[in-house]
Amino acid sequence: MITREQIPQVVGHPVHDAEGKKVGDAKHMYLDDNTGSPEWVTVKTGFFGSNETFVPTRSARLVQDHLEVPYAREKIKGAPNVDVDSGGHLSVEEEQHLYRYYGIERSGGKDESAGTTGKAAAAGGAAGAAGAAAGTKRSARDTGADTSGGMGDKSAAAGAGAGMGTSGMPGRTGAPERGTAAAAEGEAMTRSEEEMHVKVERHASGKARLRKFVEVEEVEQTVPVRHEEVKLEREPLSASDREALRSGAEIGEAERYVTLHEENPVVETEVVAKERVRMRVEEHVEQKKVHGRVRKEKIETDMESPSDPLPGDTR
After folding, report:
1. Taking the complete model, does pTM exceed 0.70, yes or no?
2. What are phi and psi of 22, to 5 degrees?
3. Which of 69, 162, 231, 254 falls 20 to 30 Å from 312 in CA-CA distance?
4. In the predicted model, what is the mean pLDDT of residues 69-75?
């Protein structure tokens, strides 16, 4: 539960979800008109904080420099869009819609017949405290009841009136009317500027394929082969051989056969595994320059000489 005293520690600070992840920054705090207690906080979400989402503060707690709420980030970002009127109030229908979305039952102390739910927006610092005080006094001024603990006098009513906008409703103290601005900031002025935040998105840039195909290569290899040839050998007969062949020797034709052999090369192939090839993805980091445009406010003063006539001076 967030108290009014903790509003400056919430507005402008990070808001984390139930898992401890940052959802955005708290922009405005909405107070209950009857009790003056913080009831809703708006969170700036989106890449540049362009969206503003309502989150209940009943179960929220302040942890160091941020606010933790018991809802998931997707739940918060999916909350219904509410268009708050110029008086900085939620209507009864709008608040009931938010209650149903977050699964919260309205307490019996709520004013069901009020035209608005009485949520006043407050910014951080002294302006946030002034807006909170103004929100708690509205019921006393409108209904005549004393909600300030017995101090429902004219000064309290005047203090409530200081926190009201031109519509008679508590306004956003982050953007007060002229009278409130002078009381809250005095002679000071807040200067703001935009900051550029760059995020990195991961996406598919292409596909790598590992493919195997067959390639035919001509291979030449020298191998030794043998073959047989016939060579004639002559040897003279001895005297005994000639004497033995003398009887019955005749002159005529004759044939003899000898089988010759040779070797021929025969090519055979064998599949042999040589190596294993796999794909490995490596991540390389490169520096890229990102250009953007941001706006910033500048503050300067114009000095008026004593001789210059004041606005409305007819002299």
Report:
1. no
2. -70, 130
3. 162
4. 91
